[in-house]
Every structure is written in C-alpha cells, then in structure tokens.
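User: Please predict structures.

Assistant: First:
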Amino acid sequence: MPTPDTLIADYLDRLRQASADLPAGSRAELMQDIGAHLAEKVDATASEVQVRRVLDELGAPEEIAAEAADQSGTRSSAPAAGGLAYDVATVLVLLLGGFVIPLLGWIAGVVLLWNGPRWNARHKWAGTLIWPGAIILALVLLTADHRTSGRLGVVVVTGVAAIMVGLVVGFVYLLRAARSHR
C-alpha cells in the first residue's frame, strides 16, 4: 500500500515528465506552485485517502502540464492517451470487451481506464466494478427461486434489461466524466 509521501512523489514525477517540453522557467514555476499547493493542503498526519482526495482535486498531471503548455504557448509532450479517441475506445473496450472476450476483454478495458488521464480514482473504481456488479446481479437472478411465482421468463427478461441499462448508464457516466476533464 502506498504511503502519502510516495503518492505525492509519484504525482510530482508524473508532472515533471508531462511538463518536459515546457520552457525551463515555466516548468520550474509549475513544479514550485504545485509543490507549494500540496504542502499547504497535505500535512504530516494526512492519511492516504486524504492525499488521494487532494491529488484528485488537482487533476491529472498530464492535464496540468497541457494547460500550462497552452498558457505558455508551447505544446506539451503529454501522451495521446488524453484525447477523445482514447476516452471513447476505453469505454467501448470496457463495454464490449466483456462480451467479445469475457475476462480478457474486461481486463483490457480496466487497464485502459486506469491509464487514462481523464478519470479520477472514483471514476476508475466505478468503471472497474461495473462488469463484476452486472455478473453478480445476473447470477443472483439466475439462482433465485422462481418456482413460487411461475414467472421465470419475466424475471430473467427484466433482470437482463436492468443489467443492460445499468451498463449503459455506467459507461455514459464515464464518458461524461472524461469530457468534463477535457
């Protein structure tokens, strides 16, 4: 489990890498500003959860570097993983990967999601848990005792519809979250 100091050091390393194309003065100022902000918001007794919350509020280092590059008139070398195509591809792999290649497709989508700079930890956990939650709900529906009601078909169709709606809602949530961080 990462310590608060490790989380901050990793975040600053990512910011340093993402801002490599900034002019030296702009990059130094950016690093100093973010370092000062973190020092102000995170004290020595901060928990891992508190540090993650502060880092999520700041946003992805790649986004910060891109914004600094826009302000300074230079282009950042931030990875292409921040574009609309990446966001849509990630959500499609999460949605369809589980159907095409049941376990590996879902894992590929999760890897893309966790490497995407547009989503914070809450979004990433929600996207990760959507498929397992759908599978658990399907298993509950299939193993429930339907003999007393005699309406197995209605229960299954309703359950499948609920699962599909839940998946679509979850993935729309992820796309909206990504769009709001562009």
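Second:
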Amino acid sequence: MSKVVYWVHASVDGFIAGPNGEFDWPVMGPELSAYSDGLNERVGTFLYGRVVWELMSGYWPTADQISDHPHDLAFAKVWRNMPKVVFSRTLTEAGWGARVETDVVGAVRALKARQDKDLLLTGGAGLAAALAALDLIDEYQVVVHPVVLGGGKRLFPLAGRFDLKLAATRPLDGRAVLLSYHR
C-alpha cells in the first residue's frame, strides 16, 4: 500500500502563498533540488487541487524551454511524464496526463490500495485540509523558507487539532529547513 505525502513550501510565519497569491519566494538550491528529485523517485502519482493544478499546468509543461535553472530543467521532464490526478468540482478535463476526480476519499483510497509507489500531494492547502481531516495523509514534508510573508494562504487551514510525530529535520542549502512528520 502506498502513502500520501504532503510536500509543501512554507514561510516562517506559516503561509504557503503571499497576500496576493505570490509564490516567488521559495529558492530551489542544489540540496533542496536534490532532495526533491529523490522524493519524486518514490512517487507514482502527483495529486493536485484545482488551484495548484492551474499554477502547475501553466508552467511545468514548457518550463525547460523558458528556464535554465537546473531544478526546472530536471523537474519539467518528471512532471510531464508523471501520472496526475486533479480533484475538482468544476473541471471536467485537465490535459497533460492528468485525470479529474470529484470523489476525493474514494479516489485517494483506491490509489493508495493499488499502487506500490507513493502519492505526492503538492501545495494546495484546501485539498491537504480535506485529506488531513480524513486522516489520509501519512507523511508531511514541510520546507520552511527564511521569509516572513505577513499574510496570505495558511499552511494548515484546519478546524481540528491533530498530533504529528517528528521523523526528521534537515537544513538545505544553508537557507531552508525540511521538517518531516508522520501521523
């Protein structure tokens, strides 16, 4: 059975996007990029909510044609080839190797049961909150970047409390810190 891994970049003050939705502050240095590459090797499917899907599908299909950053060059190919599931009540199709699902619980449980590789939930506080409330996230990987955004989209907009077990911490590129937690 596979695990759902929530992979997210956060500011020191607990936001995943700035007050105007900006996401220009995470810095993908060599160590963070290498860690991300290793995480992608254990994954068989990317999971997205509609908002994050629109951001990802607006950049990654051609990122290696418009950027020379080593992370972008490597990840664009991974992104294009990876199966993707987009959870949405409004989209009917997504393109780029993605299928749209409306039944979050049923789809995630089915994927976990039939896949050997893990499922990677990237960003998206709304989908993460829904999955966390149902105890469907097995591992939380939060990369904290040295920036204070002062507002924006919260990392965990959850109504209820739940406990996590610290699995690991790791500084990356002398700048960011990875916090890994298990349920």
